[in-house]
Design brief:
- The complex is a heterodimer of chains A (1072) and B (372).
- Helix content of chain A is 37%, strand content 19%.
- Chain A is built from 39 helices and 38 strands.
- In chain A, the strands form 7 sheets. A 7-stranded antiparallel beta sheet of chain A has the order 14-13-10-11-12-15-16, sandwiched between helices. Chain A has a 7-stranded antiparallel beta sheet with strand order 31-30-27-28-29-32-33.
- The radius of gyration of chain A is 28 Å and the shape is globular.
- Chain B has 10 helices and 21 strands.
- In chain B, the strands form 4 sheets. In chain B, strands 12-14-13-15-16-21-20-19-17-18 form a 10-stranded mixed beta sheet, sandwiched between helices.
- Chain B is globular.
- The chains are: A alpha/beta (1072), B alpha/beta (372).
Chain lengths: 1072, 372
Amino acid sequence: MPRRTDINTIMIIGAGPIVIGQAAEFDYSGTQAVKALKAEGYRVVLVNSNPATIMTDPELADATYIEPLTVDILEKIIAQERPDALLPTVGGQTALNMGVALAENGILDQYGVELIGARLEAMQLAEDRKLFQEAMRKVGLEVPQGSMVGSLEEAKVVAAEIGRFPILIRPSFTLGGSGGAIAYNEDDFEEKVIFGLKESPVHTVLIEESVLGWKEFELEVMRDAVDNFVVVCTIENLDPMGIHTGDSITVAPAMTLTDREYQHLRDQARIVMKAVGVETGGSNVQFAVNPDDGRVLVIEMNPRVSRSSALASKATGFPIAKLAALVSVGYRLDELQNDITRTTVAAFEPSIDYVVTKLPRWAFEKFPGVDPELGPQMKSVGEAMAIGRTFKESLLKGLQSLELNRAPYPNHEDSVWDGKLDSLALPRSERIWAVWEALRAGIDTSTIAEMTGIDRWFLSQLEQIVHFEQELMGCAGEDTIPPALLRKAKRCGFGDAHIAYLTDSDEMTVRQQRNRASVMPTFHVVDTCAAEFESYTPYLYSSYESETEALPTDDEKVVILGGGPNRIGQGIEFDYCCVHAVMKLREMGYEAVMVNCNPETVSTDYDISDRLYFEPLTLEHVLNIVQREQPLKGVVVQFGGQTPLNLVKGLNEAGIPILGTSPDAIDLVEDRGRFGSLLAELDITAPEGGIAYSLGEAKKVARLVEYPVVVRPSYVLGGRAMAIVYSEPQLEHYMAEALKAAPNQAILIDHYLEDAYEADVDAVSDGQTVVVGGIMQHIEEAGVHSGDSACVLPPYKISAYHLGIIRDYTERLARALNVRGLMNVQYAIKDDVVYVLEVNPRASRTVPFVSKATGVPLAKIATEVMVGRKLADIGLTEDPRVDGFFVKEAVLPFKKFLGADALLGPEMRSTGEVMGHAARFGHAFVKAQMAAGDRLPTDGTVFMSLNDFDKSAGLRLARDLHRLGFQIVATRGTASFFVRAGLPVTPINKVSEGSPHAVDYIKEGKIQLIINTPLGPISRDDGGSIRSTAVRYGVPLLTTLSAAQAAVNGIKILREQQLKVRSLQEHYSRVR
Amino acid sequence: MQARLILEDGSVWHGEGFGANGTHVGEVVFNTSLTGYQEILTDPSYAGQIVVMTAPQIGNTGVNEDDDESRKAFLSGFVVRDLSPTVSNWRACDSLHNYLQQQHITGISDIDTRALTRRLRDGGSLKGVICTDETLSDNEVIQQARNWPGLDGVDLVQTVTCDEAYHWTESTPDDWEFAPIHNNGEFRVVAYDFGIKRNILRRLTSYGCNVTVVPASTTAAEVMAMQPDGVFLSNGPGDPAAVPYAVDAVKSLLGQVPIFGICLGHQILGQALGANTYRLKFGHHGGNQPVKYLPEDRVEISAHNHNFAVDPDTLPANVEVTHINLNDNCCEGLRVKDMPAFSIQYHPEAAPGPHDADPLFAAFIRLMEARK
């Protein structure tokens, strides 16, 4: 059956902003789907609110809408584009929910749009746990005991039926298991059920028998319209049931199943697909298996491409999203080619002769107060994947890939285990090291298995590693490690640094010893077939085997270093830049070699680069690659965030050419002394500041530059351990934290420009010509991390005079630093003075946003510059013009991190971003808010609590809101100020003043909007409970006056006028 | 314990020995199944072969009492990348190491199985020797491999078949049953044991067959004397050209009684119909092979274990090729148009492998039903 010819235009919905549980993997899947359908000649309409995605590049789809993912907006796009079909299965839960909503509201019928990839009934069935459980029981499959409830009373009845704790509580229709929890007793149960009911958009939760401690397996499956069915990959979770699979270490293929048991799961997965009614596409089915008797329970299924299907695609080389898109338009799996072997068909099951381990990466350090215990709600913000020939090798490589602020092996400094068996039972992010330490201490695997629920097999592998560590420790103090032992260690996956640690040596000495002993890595191809057929796609991983496959070509190469696992402050934006660099380099005729270890990314798709190394981004592994990939033009380090920059020194010392801006310039801007002199030389103003290596020095500097001050360690991204400090005792506290985040490094201390406003500049330079890609004005004031601040392009409130200064400073800085490539500068404007806050001679988080707004692909242009072209030759010598307004808004994960203070500050905490664009600022701002999920109210009650500086400006806002018909309530100080000005306002208690107080009002649903601007350390702490309640109950919260002004402006627009939608392509065509 | 795998091409692969000590010669083949090493070890079709597992982690689930596919392990050696130091599975009763020791099979681990597989893929199956005897020099062992005549033309069936006929009564246990089966009465089936796997017998029994297993050399007259409703031709090791007696028997049975053949049984039926068989470069051994069932244009993911195939160009006009392998288009199944006989080259009984082809047993039942 060839592709369908009765449909021409297909609409694809993306996943929106990056949030916990829904990350860059959906850019990967969406991009594959768009490319595949376009290649088949369909007209593709794409909608996604996230500008930092490859899928929203205007060259990809025929019509690209960066618009909020809401039913209203999607209806407008459908009315405008009139698609024949909608593919809702490649944009995560968001797209699936949108597909369901559009169908249920009759919009698809109204416009004659057919759902492809999954029928409405299938989506409803898979998502509604009650329907799902009934469907499973009907076809004879077992599911955990329990049922769906809509109230606490019903929940209690079900709990009584189950008859024992712990009990699992899972809200329907939430992603990443948001709101899910395990209750251990009745009190616990009540609280968690109430929250779960609130969390679910349909206000139902599943109350279920807990299968805590069972083994967990996932099958990634595909089906076509004639019932050809394949299992792409089987994934076994190292962590047992009870820990969200996104927070689990997972391994492919499954390790502890016999064939009989595995086939049993495979048969059941097939039955599940049929019972749910998934006719075409990829799905994921999760099973729990009782380790004592093998009893199998079906836990859930996703009738769409998921996080684990991205992982499965990377783990096997089988492009699930691409094939899901193709089977959704009528192809059969046996009509499609296996891209990797080229000679075989896609209707097969990959066999792999290596082991893949995925490890989550958390960011608890950014959210003090949050319970770091892992459970059914996902808390990790990113992941790394590693490929090794054995589990041991892939685990050890995976731990190296995580790039944590600790050694990837247990050592004295990073010890996490308190020596107590009980603590092993706590599922924490660092448990893998605790277990490792326990094994080193001689605790046997059976005991640990009992405490942790981790299968004995995995523990025995770790135990082998420990035994081997002891063997290596026997060589400590010797001049050389015997070559045979060295080879064995490398074959087991030990990093050079790990060997050095065990043998009392250093990493480079071990490397030299290895080279002398010819213990060199070999490189192997991910070929989908365990070497049964020859493969043509150079998707490679390293090991220490007997022969290397896929030798380097004779072409000139450029190696692009990626960003590694996503973390807060370093995410999809950098992968976007890397992918653009790869595209441009290929276009220019270079061989583009990509190195990355993040399975969620587009950059690790096998058909993006000429050659893909799925490897840890450590000096050891990167050197292995660049020393082999000759002839080498150079290495691109500007695009992968801080990760590649951390390698610059080592690469430089090894004589590896770095493309673009010199390593020295990169170093200069991070060196406070040198940077200070440069600014003085250029006559550029910066806040008073200094540098400290100890608390004593810090106190001195702070007194000199005057409080409040901003403290931050140098060489970190995303404002890790960055804070505003108002007093000396606070400084003592923060210094301790800051030194922990960046030991032995300089701590920068600057005067904090309170109440200033900020601007961000992305520029590209060839050393002579400097082009400012965009000047973005922050909507939050200075002090809020640029990654967390909403910003607008072009600036709407900066005078032409100040813009001139900003442009001039940018140009001077770029020339002085001899920037070749991208540069990002952050400015603050206060009392008519423009200050430079920070300069980064690399790609910034806002590059994709600026590129989308201007239509100028900055990262591609920077890439050309880096390999030697001049901007004049490229034809870019003038700053691009922007038509209309583009607003970027940050998306914050506070909902997943209850207990964390939801106040924005200098430490970045957002996970993702959205873009809103429109002809007028207010419209663009409203769209950005809608896209970020904060729906501004058009009526109701506003709660205001303002600091003294903001009270007079806040009065104007309050008046506007009053005129718009809002009721105003305020804390006493704010209220009395308003009353004096003659504004009707109801005073309410602060929390400390007793009930009924502000938090009660929020909980009772009496407040629709909160404007809370704290100042100084006391009110910042004070507002904590208000902010966390607002987050918990989903009430829009504005913590700066500028944001509040924009919001009020937006509310007016929402009430006055309908929003319009326009595709990027149409927008650009009008501009040009 | 040090061990070596030495191939006729002169390559020497050092590793750790496990299972029994010894020096054994065999034809080296690779298997790409991710699970099911116990079934592979006990599949009589591997007699004379040294099996390389491409899946790197082997032994994790130990061995258990249910998953043996025959009375013993018949293969000549077992090669793995990483042997599990422990056993973790609720059904396990022993470790792989102990099991191989009891079965007198030599295993070798820590081998670069990927490089070995690539060599076999590019150069075809090779003769090899697995050896734990450190007193033998590499050269002596290489000579042993080169001097070994190999499997072509050798009747290995005689080494694996049963000594005398027996009844089989065990069906697939309820806990593991996966297909909705509607029994339409009982069928007397005589199953030729060329190296039969137990799961074939279990599946036949589950589908309502009363099975009598007979030795490979049983004549057609002896079979017909049992008044069977159908005759089953089993899988088995080695070269189909080496069992002319079986081919002769099938020739006489053709047309008299419904026939269903699997694997070697398929090749024997092919030969009985007048077709030639030929050796594949490195064979199909694994659980992920896509086979297209041509009459229904549908793909089965299936378990394979064969080094030989029926040449479709030599089939007579009354025989139709029903199944082809989508990887290399070789003939995977045939049907005689004017007689109740069909066969497939691969394994509907799986064990190990997916169950997609299980309905072929039902097809056999239908064939017998039609004649009853």
